[in-house]
Fold each of these.
Amino acid sequence: MKKILTGLFILIIFSNNYVYGEVFTAASFVSGGYSVNIQKNISKDSFLRFYHSKNDYKKALPVLVKVNKMNKKYQVLEQNSLDYNLAVLYFYNSQYATALSYFKKLEPVQDESIISAIADCYYYTGSYYTAINYLKKLKVLDYHNKETLYACYYVLHNKSEANKYAHELLN
């Protein structure tokens, strides 16, 4: 019963625009005993920001996986939000293939950051050609995207393209 109530408190955290102290206290109990300053009007992304501030993605992942399982039954949260947060946590835990599967669910959104994250997952799983194809879908390449393109072309022994991005990185 205690686990169910705690899980429901977590669902409340994700489903409300604002989290109040009593609910966040329940979540801090779940999070492994970290002390949390109770505040009013903490945004619904507090869970992820809390673990990010602790740089503790390993502890965050199983909690969010449980929340995702509960959400399939109760459907309290927006699934896209859960999928995105799971993708990020799997990525930070170096589980790139799993992160990729969650990011791919979000691909129809056509968000540049999602496309870039998909390319990163392909890069880290060794699918360099696919990573390149995703990066070429981006309207604007940021520094990180250029680094990834350089690395892909370098690994694929395409020196002319690797040099092209090396020069762009230096300018």
Note: The CA atoms of residues 57 and 160 lie 38 Å apart.
Amino acid sequence: MGELHVFQPVNPEEIETGPYKFVGEKILITAADGSRVNTMCAKWGGVGYIWDKRVTFIFARKGRYTSELITASGEYSISFMNQEKYRGTLKYLQMVSGRNEDKIANSRLNVNYYDGIPFIDEAREIITCKVLYQREFDEGALIDDEIRDKFYISGDNHILFIGEVKNILLR
């Protein structure tokens, strides 16, 4: 028998560090299709490695304007904002649809582009991505009924987008 090791349990929140920490932070997901550009506020996502590629995974409801633009363009960016400085802006972006108004201009943010992918210029870090996979959630595949009842009762399911990391831009 080999040497036994002693492991100590660790709270995942205590070791999740770095600029790409998604838990508790609102991120801005931005996409464009020709002359149309929009951003949305989100809290769900992450970074990982699959298919021999560094990837991000994000979730956007299928009814969101940004989902439509990501699907059309096959690209998106994730902008990490100063949560304190832009608290009101993030709240506004979460409440308003870009279908009905130019919410980026109305929030006094600026769009910039890197390799043709739009991002929010005021961000502290940006990840630009090319979509590799997208799939609408199948609520019937959820094992936990509580999740379905809490997040999917309206039928406006999320779309999972997995995007290859093309660039990471730091200030």
Note: The chain has five helices and nine strands.
Amino acid sequence: MNLPSTNENNNSQEEAQLDSRRLGRRLLRIILIAFVSINVLFLLFQIPAIQTWTVGQITRGLSQKLGTKVEIGYFRLSIINKFRLKDVYVADLKGDTLLFSEGVDARINLSPFVILSKGLMVDRVHIEDSQLYIRRDTNSFETNMEQLLAKLKRKERKEKSKRQLINIELS
């Protein structure tokens, strides 16, 4: 009967320790890269040109999704997953003012599963100092607000929409 020598046991223990150190270093690098990337993105969003581009993307996306005019005066990323919009204007489908808000605060869902499957999703919105003009035509069952909200509701899964940078849905 051959028993493994203590030399072989020591070698296997040293290899296991070396493997765990390598794994620890890799995890540390991944965490460091993620931390640096998030901070770089946050700093980039403080640049006025990037803020202007972001306002254009949000405005264009909302206007297309709603089929009406949307204007945003200002965008500011406050914390990694929160942003503020100032002077937000949304017209109804007839072009009349539906909403004007001096401030809209929103929170982005940073779940990796949500981002990979749907893109950036806003999961909370707080609207302040606003004027909301809800109307119902005499020949319509829905108000102007209900008509726009219906455009934000999720489409059937059969319908494949192209993936957008910012996805706006109402659940």
Note: Residues 156-160 have pLDDT under 50 and may be disordered.
Amino acid sequence: MRDQRPNCVTLATLLTPTGAALIVTGLWLLFAATHLGMSLTSLRERIGARRFTLLFVVIAQLLFALLVLGHGGLRRIGAWTFFHDVAYERAMGVVATVGITFVVAGVIDYLRTPMVPLANHTHVTPLQRVTRHSVMLGLSLWGAAWAARPSQWVDVAFFAGFPAFALVGSW
């Protein structure tokens, strides 16, 4: 008995590995442009701090979710393997673990920092003395470690976006 379903053509069947990586890169650029662009405009003064914060958070969350879903949907297009050396893999695992440690420490430390909205204190914590934005540093290390050991080009585009975004955002 023959399969009666029509041939389905999906976006994934039309894309090359490079095309998928370019889509993920485009999603990173859209996220960065809105995230950084909104913080550079006078929109905050025009609509008020609370409305601006709500709008900023909603847009950032939606675009980041789109980025993650786009990566997840495109990551099985093609295969490009990097060399698999056990020592190299372990070293990148250590770098990724250090990165996640910075992220967790930064989240725990955040409420005691002067960066909290409407905070009136200026206490500098020991973690801030090492790095002002430990979450961004941690995400950069984590992303760089995963970008250095990809299985597809789309993974390189996705994970390399974290250190690139942190670098652009720190300017």
Note: The chain is about 70% helix and 0% strand.
